[in-house]
Design a protein that fits this description.
By secondary structure, the chain is mostly beta strands. The protein is built from one helix and eight strands. Strands 3, 4, 6, 7 and 8 form a five-stranded antiparallel β-sheet that branches. A three-stranded antiparallel β-sheet has the order 1-2-5, with no helix packed on it.
């Protein structure tokens, strides 16, 4: 009798275990509208980042970095923005490198408020024509 009860309990345990591991998958129909153009991203820009750090006394450290493939030139534009009713640019810096890596670091003192960086990363060809542009926003900083 004990063996039979143990066998039933074992089977129940296995069924519970199987049901807990089981994953349901649902399919949804999607209305595919004709796509006029597919544009790949990150053809020339291989890496881009930005960082906004609040230091003592209201000093913000603003950093932007763009790395492009060897045949291109990198550019960075950093816009320090403050939130009032909407995001407003209060200071802008930009530079273009002589090679594939452009790192820009600036410091700016601010009054109490909420801030972020809008960073535009650019890849240019040998003629100076823009090949690719990526815009990223930093996390916000409250002072």
């Amino acid at each position: 009798m004990k063996k039979k009860v143990l066998s039933v309990l074992f089977v129940v345990f296995i069924m519970v275990l199987i049901n807990s591991i089981h994953t349901n998958v649902y399919a949804e129909t999607v209305d595919l509208k004709p796509i006029s153009e597919i544009t790949p991203n990150y053809i020339a820009i291989t890496w881009c980042s930005n960082n906004l750090v609040l230091e003592e006394g209201g000093k913000l450290s603003c950093q932007g970095n763009t790395v492009v493939q060897a045949e291109y030139t990198a550019g960075v534009k950093i816009e320090l923005q403050q939130l009032s009713e909407d995001w407003t640019t209060i200071k802008t810096w930009e530079d273009i490198s002589d090679d594939k890596n452009m790192y820009l670091y600036k410091e700016w003192y601010v009054v109490k408020g909420t801030y972020r960086l809008k960073t535009t990363h650019t890849a240019l060809d040998s003629s100076g024509d823009v090949i690719e542009t990526v815009t990223k926003y930093s996390e916000t900083v409250d002072y």
